[in-house]
Amino acid sequence: MKELFTIENPAVPSVQQVLSLRLGNRHLGYAITNRTGEELYKLGYFRTEETDGAALAELLEQTPALKEAFYSVQVAYDFAGHSLLSSTGYRPEESGNMLKALFGINGNEAVITENIAEWQLYNVYAVPAELLHRVQQYFPAAQCRHQFSLAIKQLQGAGDTAVMLVDFRQDDFSILVTRQSRLLLAQTYAYSTPEDVLYYLLKAVDQLGLSQQELDLQVSGLIDRDSALFKEIVQYFIQVEFRESPWQGLEHPAHYFTSLNDLARCAS
Q: Which one of 77, 129, 238, 251 is most buried, counting C-beta atoms within 10 A?
């Protein structure tokens, strides 16, 4: 497990604290905040070869603060194997077979279904069974959800303008697109070059019949304003902005941690 960055506020007040954990294919992050998620006390973000039960145990061993009692524990699973289904076409008995056909999941993974009632959708996804067991063991009262279920709840989608949320990790990124209260796309893609990202963004725009000039593109995660990747994006899209967390005064850009902040605010 490789540490990418840690942040700590030495003057932590005695308040009801919230622990947020984001667990994905090759990344693991945590944040300790106040109840509303507006104040950050401690944060860590790591790259992993595999986010499994051993990785979580290692994190807890080297970070004693995560073993404290918390007002609330929020967990977001960020694994790529997921499928969004309309509530009218959802068949619970077929969920496991569907994910197996799409992503090749096996008996080492647990299948979970979440109801996103506001969008009349079900999110069916897989989590490594050992990791799920460890989370339940260490944090039995935790509220858990998939990262896409969380992100979809951030979408407004009431206007005519299409909105695209793009969140970056080191070697993959997620896209969510909505327009007129309809979810058009929710997908994760691997990438190694800026050209890879542009390919998927432009392909999504073309296939969904969107306008590059009118699309509201909101960016978060591990991407810098002066990076080659961001410079390429703004050459092809007019309305581009960073979706930032309220955690200001950090040595790292606030948009790095937007997804963790979204998760922390679920406790309020």
A: 77
pTM: 0.91
What is the rounded CA–CA span in Å between residue 208 and residue 206? 6
Q: What is the pLDDT of residues 65-99, one digit of tens each?
A: 999 999 999 999 998 888 888 888 777 777 777 77
Q: Please indicate whether residue 109 or residue 237 has the higher confidence score (pLDDT).
A: 237
* Nearest alpha-carbon partner for 110 in 91, 93, 125: 125
- Rounded distance, CA 26 to CA 51, Å? 6
* Both structure tokens of 108: 């080492």
Domain ranges in the chain?
156-255
Residue 205 CA to residue 193 CA, distance in Å, equals 19
Cβ burial of 77 (10 Å; 0-12, 13-18, 19+) is buried
Terminal Cα distance for the chain, rounded: 31
CATH architecture assigned to 156-255: 2-Layer Sandwich (3.30)
**How far, rounded to the nearest angstrom, does the alpha carbon of residue 239 sit from its chain's CA centroid?**
22
